[in-house]
Amino acid sequence: MKRERTMRWVTGIAAIAVSIVVFILPFVFILLQAAKTRRGAAELSFSWPTEWVFLDNLIEVITQRDFIVARAFVNSTVLTVVSVTVLVVIAAMVGFVMQRRASTIRTVANFFVLAGLIVPPAVVPTVWVLQTVGLFGTLPGLILIEITFGLAFSILLFRAFVSTIPRSLDEAAIIDGASSFRLFFSVIIPLMRPIAITVIVVQSVAIFNDFANPLYFLPGDDNATVQLTLYNFQSRSSNQWNLLFMDILLITIPPLIMYIFFNRQIVAGMTSGAVKG
């Protein structure tokens, strides 16, 4: 018993030490560089700033190039909110039907869902499709891209979670006269709250931090997202490391807040959906 308690303490201390090295130290490094002058940040050293210019760097980052960072935050927020909302609704409905209805269509749907996880996205054909329908370089086009790329993973999570909901609830609701839509939206959706929060947080962070898709499918300063603003402070001749790290700090804060506030819900959703495969 005493040995087991000692092993628990050692494991806990080791986990805390690894967390500090992997997560906290890089964040502290970013914070220190964001508070330095351009010359001090160019050294890229883990040292205390000789001159604190945190507020000056913050103002300069926000006002650079006609407030492009502010516009980028608006674009990223709209992109994230709309994409995640549609994604959750579609994934929940598809996951419910795939779990409850046994048919040939479900087999085909399973194939496409797994293909969505395995097959890498092709940039050139996707650009051609967006250009054909007139959505290339537009926010609605990128929203459709984000929904498509995140749908397979979300469907699997919802489907696994639906398997833990007793079928007797469906039968009771149908006996009471509930239609299929009322059954889903009045009975099933409230029970999906843990996994819905998990999908919302995970996909929100992924879409908000996405760099490649906006770079390929949403060119132009007016359509810039937060990740693309990192280019503003880099060039071939010189890098403004203090402003770059300040921008990174601003981008990091929203996902960090989401994980802090919804950490328990994420774990609850993932473990509940994993009880039955």
TrEMBL record:
| GO BP terms | transmembrane transport
- Compartments reported by the entry: Cell membrane
Whether Cell membrane counts among this entry's keywords is: yes
TM region(s), chain numbering: 12-35, 73-96, 108-130, 142-162, 183-208, 241-262
Gene Ontology CC: plasma membrane
What InterPro entries would the database entry show? Answer: MetI-like, MetI-like_sf
Residue ranges constituting the ABC transmembrane type-1 domain according to the UniProt record: 73-262
**Keyword list, A-Z:** Cell membrane, Membrane, Transmembrane, Transmembrane helix, Transport
Q: How does it sit in the membrane?
A: Multi-pass membrane protein
Q: Which PANTHER family match?
A: ABC TRANSPORTER PERMEASE PROTEIN MG189-RELATED, ABC TRANSPORTER PERMEASE PROTEIN MG189-RELATED-RELATED
Which family does the entry's similarity section mention? Answer: Belongs to the binding-protein-dependent transport system permease family.
The protein, known as: Carbohydrate ABC transporter membrane protein 2, CUT1 family
